[in-house]
Amino acid sequence: MPFDGIFTNCIASELDQRLTGAGIERIYQPEKDEINMQIRTQKERVRLVISANSAYPRIHITDHNKKNPENAPMFCMFLRKHLLGGRILSVSCDDYERIIVLHISTIDEMGDSTVKKLIVEIMGKRSNIILVNKDDIILDAIKHVDEEVNRVREIMPARPYQMPPPQDKITINQFHPEVFQMLESDLTCEKTILEHLKGFSPILCKEVCFRAGIDPKKPFSSLMPLEKSNLILQIDTIRKIIETTQYTYCIAYTPGEIPAPVDFHCFLLTQMATVREFGSANAMLDEYFLSKDNSNRLEQRKSHLKKILHNNLTRCEKKLSLYEEQIRETADRETLRLYGELLTANIYTLKTGTKVALVQDYYAEDERYVEIPMDENKSPQQNAQSYYKKYQKAKSKYEYSIRQVEETSAELEYLQSVDQLLDDSTDDMIINEIQLELIDNGYIKETKSKKKLKNQGESKPHRYYSSDGLRIYVGKNNTQNDQLTLKTAQSNDIWLHTQKIPGSHVIIKKDYGEIPESTIYEAAMLAAYHSKAKQSGNVPVDYTRVKYVNKPRGAKPGMVIYTDYKTMHVTPDHKSIEKIKENREKG
Q1: What is residue 46's three-state secondary structure?
Q2: pTM for this one?
Q3: Among 243, 263, 287, residue at a domain's last position
Q4: CA-to-CA distance for 550 and 546, rounded, in angstroms?
Q5: DSSP per residue over 544-555, as a string?
Q6: How high is the pLDDT of residue 456?
């Protein structure tokens, strides 16, 4: 995460401008490592979020509220005692450290005015929120660090606050082109900048190299004089932007249908293909971390449903294996019946006490003799009845196992389809519908939340347009698959699905004439892309008219049978899919 020293200095400056002179009205602790403050400035009320989360430490103004626990945690109560009613004197960041200090004027227990500092350390796993008094003695911290964890720097009440050990680097303000021109380094260009300039993150080092037209991985020692000059020029440009505060706040996103934020900075990230600019550092951070929170929450919900699916898939696989083994065990059932019949046919030629009966097999073409094991303690009649009973038991076991294999295979196929659709899901609404489907089919216990899930609306299937202008629909879940195939589609529309591979139902609407082969090919690409085989090559996709697709009675959502089909093999590549998506956007 690019919350480096330079950006920390930038956000501190912006917070200083907005919060100096503001009063602290309320303090909350919605997470174990996060504090929210309601602050009143002369113009507005704002909410300041301060997080010491190991993955996403931060400090910024937010427009979004979080649900708070009914009982405030101890650290929250402690901050309320010391800071409520206090006034922010300034917000500072010294020497491009990833540390922001809120200087707060408060009234102590004796009624005297005093200054306390709320120190926010944005350092990954070592991030912390620390309250110190005017003498820099720690009053408390959201994370305690004793000598067993860190002998050099304890973060405990009553201990003096110490800054982290200094880095052997120069700040951007101390940067001199002549010195850098003479620099010798065996590291790569990006690592050289990272090792020598304080406050630079890896993303900013890469950006400098990119702007200079240099491969970040290129050894610094191999740079030509012109390349080194270009690198120095770009570093100096960064210095001038910092001096003039002419920042460009931006978030970089991943390419694709659902862009995800990957980086941010106060400099335009020209190395990234997709960026969005913002008017302030606070607005940018609020959007970035809201997206991250939503993404994490979505992944947590998917993970929860994945666990349920995994447990049921494992159960089905074990059950299937058990009944397949029972089918193998009963493979000789007809031999048991034959022995019973042959013993009955030869009953008067057999004697009690015989260990093996040698009888003629009248069913064999050559009427050969067969040896039948006997229980010498039973009569021939009793031995025959014993074989009949074993046969009936094996037959019943076989028939029951066959039914169980069919039912379990169908259930396994269904669960695999839900698992694939869950992989493909990109928003809360789709996950809600998948969760409802699992509730309705008994995989999740029904709770009061079911009504709430239903009231959150219904998603719509993906809608694309082929290069021939025909509509192509793709289901996002099994309920939608049923709706598309069995209700929305007309009998002469084309239905597509990956062959014996979990995936979405795809429908080509037959608006007029015959459907071109090119449209069928594009729809097959979408069927492969929205399936478990999206990363595979030469994927078989079956297609037929909708009138040849039927749903068996009692079948689970999304499960159908079809006839009169053809098969097309496609490889879903990124460029082809993006081209089809462009047609969707035009449509």
Answers
A1: strand
A2: 0.74
A3: 287
A4: 8
A5: EEGGGEE--TTP
A6: 59
